[in-house]
Amino acid sequence: MNSGGRGWIDSCSALQLQGLGKVQLRLYSTPETRIPCEEERKGEVVKYVIESFRKEGHEVIDVGGARIQFPSGWGLVRASNTQPVLVARCEARSLAELEEIADKLKNTLICAGVKEFQWDFPAEE
Predict the structure, then answer these.
(1) Average pLDDT over residues 9-20
(2) DSSP letters along 88-121, please?
(3) 95 φ, ψ (degrees, to nearest 5)
(4) For residue 123, which of 95, 92, 102, 88 has the smallest C-alpha distance?
(5) Residue 89 φ/ψ, nearest 5 degrees
(6) In the chain, N or C: fewer CB atoms in 10 Å?
């Protein structure tokens, strides 16, 4: 059966794709951050975060918490099932973008009534 030259094209595509396994995209992320929050307020705070970022036009995935999509990464906050804390973390393509996402999420959490907290940022390489 004649492949019409398709076998050659598939071979070339396979050779081009072989090198892709070596490409590594560097992402920056905060560690999981545990933020004190009264048990009875956790759901209310997460709901506030969801509504606030949606009003700003962000896509928010609200399954089990709030994962806020940004052009360069995401921020996440969810209520812990075992402790009176919110669990939050962020990820982005650069350290500057990570700090920007983390600041936006932190400011929104503080507006929701959460007390001041600090993110731990990775060292720039």
Answers:
(1) 51
(2) EEEEESSHHHHHHHHHHHHHHHHHTTPPP-----
(3) -65, -40
(4) 95
(5) -160, 165
(6) N
pTM score over 0.90: no
Judge contact between 119 and 102, C-beta under 8 A. yes
Contact status, residue 29 vs residue 98, Cβ threshold 8 Å: yes
Nearest-5° angle of CA 37, CA 42, CA 61?
Answer: 125
Cα torsion at 40, 117, 112, 57 (round to 10°)? -130
In the numeric block, the tokens 């545990």 are attached to: 34
pLDDT one-digit tens code per residue, 17-59: 555 555 667 899 999 999 999 999 999 999 999 999 999 999 9
Rounded distance between C-alpha atoms, residue 88 and residue 15, angstroms: 41
DSSP letter at 82 equals S
Location of structure tokens 């949606």 = 54
Q: What distance in Å separates the CA atoms of residue 12 and residue 16, rounded to the nearest whole number?
A: 6
